[in-house]
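Annotators were shown the component list below and the corresponding predicted structure, then asked to write short factual statements about the assembly.
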Amino acid sequence: MKKHDLIMVGVGGQGIVLASDILSDVAMAAGYDVKKTDTLGMAQRGGSVASHVRIADRVWSPLMKEGDVDILVAFEKLEAARWSYFLNPKGVAIVNNQTTPPLSVSLGITKYPPDKEIEAILKRTANKYHLIDGTRQAKELGDIRALNMLMLGCVSVLLPIDVKIWQDYMARRLPSKILNLNMVAFDKGREEMSRAGVR
Amino acid sequence: MKKLLSGNEAFALGAYHAGVMVATAYPGTPSTEILESIAEFDEVYAEWSTNEKVAMEVGLGAALAGVRALVSMKQVGLNVASDPFMAASITGIDGGLVVIVADDPGVFSTQNEQDTRHYARLAKVPMLEPSDSQEAHDLMSVAFDMSEKFDTPVLVRSSTRISHSKSIVDTKQSRAKKLKPAAFKHDVEKYVMLPVHVRLRRPVVEERLVRLTAFSDTFPGNQIIKGAKKLGIISSGVAYQHARVAFPKASFLKLGMTYPLPQKLIRDFASQVDKLMVIEELDPFLEENIRAMGINVIGKEFIPRIGELNPGIVAEAGYRAGLLPEPDRPKATMPSGLPGRPPVLCSGCPHAGIFFVLNTIGQRSKLLDARGKSAEQGKLIITGDIGCYTLATYPPLRAMDTTACMGAGIGQALGMEKAGVDAKVVAVIGDSTFLHSGITGVVDAVYDKSGITIIILDNGTTAMTGQQDHPGTGVSVKGETTNRVVLEELVKGIGVADVKVVNAFDIKAIRAAVRTSLDNPQLSVIIVRGPCSVRAKKGAGQRTVDVDKCDDCDICLRIGCPAIQKLGEKVYIDATLCAGDACTVCQQLCPRKAIGPVSAGGSK
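Structure shown to annotators:
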């Protein structure tokens, strides 16, 4: 069986750790060996976050090295540019079209890279990349916290895991109050990918 | 049943299955979730102790009473707990005493990068190291059995990567139905460490170490994995996992017990391979011990002794040592020139206002711009401490001059004052840190007639480690209401006459309190109280900037609030991040009154 190494990146508070937890549980339910780990700074929110998820028959180290990653899932554009060098030459990047300036940019100490520069980096590092309007769509669904399930919907298209396993997981683990919102967000993510021509 | 568990959850479940009765800890990244997880079991008494020293003493007491006890902490916690830990080594225990210590290679959230394995040698106690969550679970039973068999505390070394990685655990083991009840066996020669008794115990400890060395050779977690004869790798912990990836063909001696070392097993392994390499994180602990056996190994001349390892770093060591063929692709590197994103204080953080005041009141605002680019330093000296608030060191707040270890700021402030600095010295410390080890500093300040100002940041939680309760919150780790230590009564009781309590979100009140305290030549304490924004429920009243009124003075940006952003010309507030009515610090500071609630008009 093919291995699937994913890295999920973004800004602390965007729900990345939870999203990678869910992905790992789903992969285990699908019968894979899984290891996942997060690299975080010391604060609760606001710092750069990278979550490693490794899925295969047998996983050794929870950490990946540059060139290992098959799928980069970025919740924020600058973080996509920062971490895309982990991708292997066949790697795919899913990038949420969201700009969150770090404090140093707001203070005028540094500059946020223009879209062109970010896209140039992604073109160089990724075999393919897909820009997803996730933040806007999650807001339209009524809750920005639906973003992580939407991004997982995107990821699900690239993994050989039956959609039913994802749905079972959500039904089993999510409180009924937010179940429907998350199911819809998940489907939205899948739609976004098919719109981008990925099935 | 199979479960995906973090190392910390697996430690807790393993200890529960092993029949642990008492579990103690003080929160510390990356060890915190061990106690949080074990507190969920009704059969186990669990507590957040005041600090690691008390946690160790409570654990030791429980073990002396004959039950199994688990004490967990981060690596610097063992410095605090080292006195009772060393005592436990010489008296021995009765029921099992297992101490899990989580190292932080790569320094994600610690003030140093110390390697806990040295404590095993110092205390002459055994050290076990898991390499994934399954082993973390399984080693707990082994550790408690060893502790009781050899009458010694057992150290278990974790690391950020073990504690905070999730992997699959087969949880088929279960907890014994009937456990031995607590009973203390009086034995003054064993438990009262008068010098005359210490002299009796010393040979017992040395003889124990000899028996442990023999045991290590039979320890099932020490195993040889046969591969190619050309290269043999000795490794432990998560470094072993990285090494398996980097050297898929090599032979391995995987060590689950890293002190004392299995000497016979190591000699056997060395004789089976042409070349021997040690791959370990941080100090050359295994390497030096194996060299001392007269065995030639390579290791730290290729493997970094600083920072966290990963499969890439281990593979590069292999290239440099000529043990692996060079890769066909050049190594990819992070693109240069991108702005970093270091951790920041959250939006609505109750620490932002007080640090803004400290930054501006001591003339720092005149001397330092937001980038902190100034040759001159501010007139206040601010000794800091360990917590989220250490982030106030960064621009734009830049209001912290020292951070050493838990509770050190108060003593440091006292020392600077007594050394004779002309500036006023202010010590800033969080509520949980204050209760952990700030109280004795205040006692010293009262006794030795200090005139410093101590600011206690009371956000009602241990925030940085993820919202744990402490004696000042009046809630136990099990979520039960308990007695509350009231900070203002505590400091008054110690003898501080000038004690003020102010609202963390009232800038005028904070400024007034800081001014009068700085003017007071006597010792003063200000308690700045306001709930942590991560813990507070998100309320209404998100703020927005009226672009017509805003004149781009950028004062609001000087708070360092992540909700207040500027891309291009104009400042705006991200409503999804703004804490709203609970905070309003930016609105209070805006000289143009351009900031107000979204509903009250103003532009987007």
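Statements collected:
1. Helices of chain A lie at 16-29, 77-83, 103-106, 115-125, 134-140, 147-158, 163-173, 176-195.
2. Chain A has a mean pLDDT of 94.
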